[in-house]
Amino acid sequence: MKNTKRNKTTILPILMIFMIINLPRRTCSVSVVQFIFGDSLSDVGNNNYLTRSLARASLPWYGIDFGNGMPNGRFTNGRTIADIVGDYMGLPRPPAFLDPSLNDDMILENGVNYASGGGGILNETSSLFIELFQGTQEMIRMKIGPESADKFFSQARYVVCMGSNDYINNYLLPVYADSWTYTGDSFTNYVISTLDSQLRLLYALGARKVAFFGLGPMGCIPLQRLMSSDGNCRESTNKLSKGFNKAALQLLNNLTNILPNSSFVFGDAYDYFQDIIDQPGKTWFVSVTQTVLVAPLER
Ligand SMILES: *[C@@H]1O[C@H](CO)[C@@H](O)[C@H](O)[C@H]1NC(C)=O
Ligand SMILES: *[C@@H]1O[C@H](CO)[C@@H](O)[C@H](O)[C@H]1NC(C)=O
Ligand SMILES: *[C@@H]1O[C@H](CO)[C@@H](O)[C@H](O)[C@H]1NC(C)=O
């Protein structure tokens, strides 16, 4: 097992040199890439470049099943949700926006991942995502001209994967005004209407194919279990996830109907995660109640 992993990593640089030599001359055709907006679940290293961020994925265990097994900026042992979806579609993995080596050629070949630990739907963070994306668009227009740029941005895939921070690190924390200003339902309406305006803004900027990933059973994360009297999942929090997912599905269907040539797809992660929590033995998780999901080291 160890040996095959090592072989893979030595082959990679050779492959990359080969690909650079064989790069086709760019004509009018543009490649299909992904732009990813999200939180820690799809971060591929932006948090590592934010030296003042509290949420850092530079600790052991992160990355143990990825590349050379060292922490790589992902808040996971292996691939993120966005990695898995993109790999499935055969699209290149976009580099982190804050990667110092990011340039216009890399963006044209691979897209960009803006996701960062702590990101959310409410305007404080999502407006920043939109601003960064607008900067990227400016750069690409200068490079390939407005017409090719329009084509590039309309063919691209957009993955939006956030929402849990808006609840877990805002609404559900009594230190913030949102927790006593809103009820569960009115907070969800507020988040959904913000998501509505942000997705329309993304469409106005040229995005046509958008996938949005909803919330998992947030009440089962260790922090929420601590707040329940018996250490079990906190049902009131899981109800918030379900209510949000239901409204988000409706919103995405509405947007697809209203906005010409658009496709807004909802990715439901709830049942998938619930299965893992209910039957950890069926998957390879051995504990779902500790501060990390523990997977056996030898597989
Ligand atoms: C959030 O941003 C959107 C789009 O820019 C705007 O329409 C909306 O009013 C903002 N909401 C708040 C609460 O600031
Ligand atoms: C979706 O559209 C329906 C029908 O117009 C409307 O009743 C509903 O409130 C909309 N939901 C969202 C979340 O936009
Ligand atoms: C929708 O697609 C058609 C055909 O590609 C195109 O002519 C039209 O301008 C598009 N409309 C919008 C709003 O993107």
TrEMBL record:
Q: What would be the name of the gene that encodes this protein?
A: LOC120283838
The answer to whether the entry has keyword Cytoplasm is: no
Tell me the leader sequence span. Answer: 1-29
Q: Domain of life, per the record?
A: Eukaryota
Entry's family note? Belongs to the 'GDSL' lipolytic enzyme family.
Name recorded for this polypeptide:
GDSL esterase/lipase At1g74460 isoform X2
KW Ribosomal protein (keyword) present? no
Keywords for this protein: Hydrolase, Lipid degradation, Lipid metabolism, Signal
Q: Which GO terms describe its molecular function?
A: hydrolase activity, acting on ester bonds
- List the top taxonomic levels of the source: Eukaryota, Viridiplantae, Streptophyta, Embryophyta, Tracheophyta
What InterPro entries does this protein's entry cite? Answer: GDSL, GDSL_Est/Lipase, SGNH_hydro_sf, SGNH_plant_lipase-like
